[in-house]
Amino acid sequence: MGFPLSFLRSATRSIPAFVAAGISFSSASVRAAEPVSVKAPAAAPSKAQLAETYKKEILPIFTTYCYDCHGDGSKKGELAMDHYADIDAMIADRDVWKRIRDHIDFRLMPPPDEDAPDDVNRKKLISWIDDAVFPVDPNNPDPGHVTLRRFNRTEYRNTIRDLLGVNVNVDEILPADDSGYGFDNIGDVLTLSPAHLERYLEAARVALNLAIDLGPLRLPQRVVNGHEFKGNGNRDKEGFFFFANAEAVREFKLPPGRYKFMVRAGAEAIAKEPAKMVLRLDGADAHTWEVKNLRSKLETYEAEIRVEGKANTKVGIAFTNDFYDAANPDPKERDRNLLVKQVIVEGPLDGPMAPRPETHRRIYGERANDLTDDAYMLEVLNRFARRAFRRPAESGEIERYLAFNRLAKSQGKPVEEAIRHALEAMLISPTFLFREEPGIGTAKGGRQLISEHALAARLSYFLWSTMPDDELMKLSSAGKLRENLPQQIARMLADKKAEAFTSNFAGQWLQLRNLSGAFPNRYMFPSFYDDRLAPLMRRETEMLFANILQENLPVDTLLTADYTFINDKLAKHYAIPGVEGDEFRKVSLKDTPRRGIFGHGSFLVLTSYPNRTSPVLRGQYILENLLHTPAPPPPPNVPQLTATGGSKKKESLREQMERHRDDPACASCHALMDPIGFGLENFDAVGRWREKEGAIPVNASGTLVTGQSFAGPQDLMKIISNDNRHAFHKAMAEKLLTYALGRGVDWYDRPAVETIVAKTDADGGRFAQLIHAVVTSVPFQFRRD
Asked: Tell me: the pLDDT tens digits for 341-354?
C-alpha cells in the first residue's frame, strides 16, 4: 500500500499551511524551573546623560580625528558623521554606526598616515557608542529571536540514526544546505520548499524500509562476506580469493538441524575443467560444487546438509583443483583461481522463523491481546512521537493519524501497514523536521524561559547534532534538567556522540570542511597529492580540538599547543623525525617552529593560493576566526598580485604587497592583516617550513597596528596567544553562541557574550567552563518572539 503525499498532508492536518506560510506550534505542559541566574552589567547612563557626554567629550574627538573626511562638508565613503542630529538619528542608522564602531575598535580609522586618537580616547568612543546607540537593559537582557529552523542534513542523518537505528545516506537524497554566519544550522537560511518536502518524504521512506520488515517471516540467516573468512588467500572488498589449493574457515553457532548453505562464487580458467569448491564442516567434506561461471558473473551454489550441532561449527570453503600453465596460448586459461564473495547459512530449516529485526521490534513492541487496532496504533505512535517530537505528544495530537488505519481497513490491509505510513507522515511533519522551542508561562519583558524539553533539544543538537537521548528526555520530563546541567554537560562531552561537535562546529568554524576543495598546484607540490595530505591535515586539527575538549584544557591551547597529532606522512611533510606508520599519535613539537593551529597544514593550505602563500588570507583568517576582528571587504577592482618571481624586478611577495599598500584605499585594512600574514611566511602554501621564497630569504618580521614588533613566527604566535587571550575567548564565545542558537550574534547579545567570557576567564579559559557558560546564558535559556 502506498499513500500519496496529498493524503499524508491531509492526515497530519498541518502540512498545507506549513508549506504555504509557516505554522504556529503549541507545547506540551511542562513544569517551570527557576530562571538561570546571570550577573547583570552595571546600570547604563540615561539618554540625557549620554547626550551631554557626547557634546562635551565625544564630539570633540570626532571633530579632531574624523571630520576632515567625514564632516564639515566632507563625505568620504558616503559618510558624513555630522549628519546625525541626535542619538535617536544614530539609533535609526545602527548599521552605519556598527561599522563606525568596528573601524575605531579595530584601528582601521583614521588611516595609518593620519593623526589618530590614543587608546584612552578610542575606548571612550567605543564605550559611548555602545551605551548610546546599542543600549542594553541590564535587568532584562534580550535573548534575541531564533527563526524556527529545520534540521540540516547532518542533524537529519543523526536523528534518523538514533530514532530508527538505521543509517541513511541522506546526502544522495536531500538538497545541500545553505550557510549563514559560517554555519549550516542557521534558521534564517534553512528554508523549506515543496521540493524539499518531497525529498524528505523519500528519505523517510528509505529509512523506514530499512528499519521495518512487514514481509512474511523468514528462516534465520547468517550472512558472512568472503573477506571475513580466514585462510591462505587474498582478502579484500571483492571477497576471499584463492590463488592456490587452500581452505578458508569461519566459525558459526549452528544448533542441530538441517541447513541450507549458499555460496556466491566465481572462478577463472574454467574452459577445460570447472573449479572445484568444497564445503567442509569441522574439517570433513560435506559437499562439492563445480564452479562453471567466471568471477565477473557470480552465481550462487546451494546445498542442504544436516548439522549435528555443537558450541561452534567450523564452516570451511576449500579450493581443490588449482591449475597453472604459463605456456597456455590463451592468457585467460593459464591460471585457475576461485573467488568466494559471500556465504549464507539458512536454518535450521525445521526450526522456528527468525524474529523481526530489532529496529522493527523497537517501533512496534509487543501487542497485548485485548487491544483494538486503534488502541494498538495509538500506543505505538505515542511511544514513537515522544522520541521523534522530542517531547510527549499533546492531547489529540496523535489521534489524527488514525486516518491511516481507516484507509488501510478500506483496502484490506493490516494495522501494521497503517502504522508504517503514519510514521511516514510523522517524519515529514513540521513537529519532527523543525526544532520547536516553546516557552514556559507568560512572556515577561518580551522573553520566556524555554521549556525543559526544548532545552534538552537545544543542548543535544548543540553538543551531539542529534536528538536527546533517554536520560535527557527523562530529566526534562521530570523538570530536573536545569538543576543537573553541569553533570549532563560533562556526560555528553564524554560520550562518543560528542565527535559530532568537533566535526560540525570545529569543521565549520575553522573551515576544515573546505580542505576537500583546496587544490595546490600539482606540479609545484606533487607530494600533497601523492600522499593525499588534505584529509590527514583535517584529521590533525580535529584531533587537537577534540583533545582540548576531552581533557578540558584551556581553549587557547588551540593556539599554543606544543604537541600535535600526526602520522608518518604528515611527519615527513613537516620534517618531524621518528614517526612511523599510518596511525595518528600525539607528537611533541618542542624542537620545531610549529605551535598550535598556526603550524597546522589545514590552516596554512586554506589560507594560500594554489601556487603561493597569501599573507592577506592568513591575516584575515586569524582576525576573523580567532581574534574577533573582522576586516571589511576589499574595494572593487583590486588587481591580483603575481606569483613570486613573476615581476621583472624579482620582487618578493612581501615587496609586492608593500607597493600595493601605498594605495590609501587599501592601507588601513592591510596594516591590520598583512603583518600577521607576513609573520607566517616561513610556512609555504602547503604548510612546509622554508627559509627562502625562491632565491630570496624570507622576511617574517613585522609590527602590528598595536605597535608590537616581532622577529618571526614564534614571536608572532606568542603575541597572539598571550596578549589576545581575551579576544580569542570572545571570538569563541560568539562562534559557539551562533552555532548553538542557530542565529547570528547581534549587539543586544553583548551582556551575554561578556558574561560568558568573564566566566571562562575566571576558570582559566577551560573548555568545559566555556561550554557551560554558553548553555547557561540568557540567549540559550530564553526565547523572544
From this structure: 999 999 999 889 98
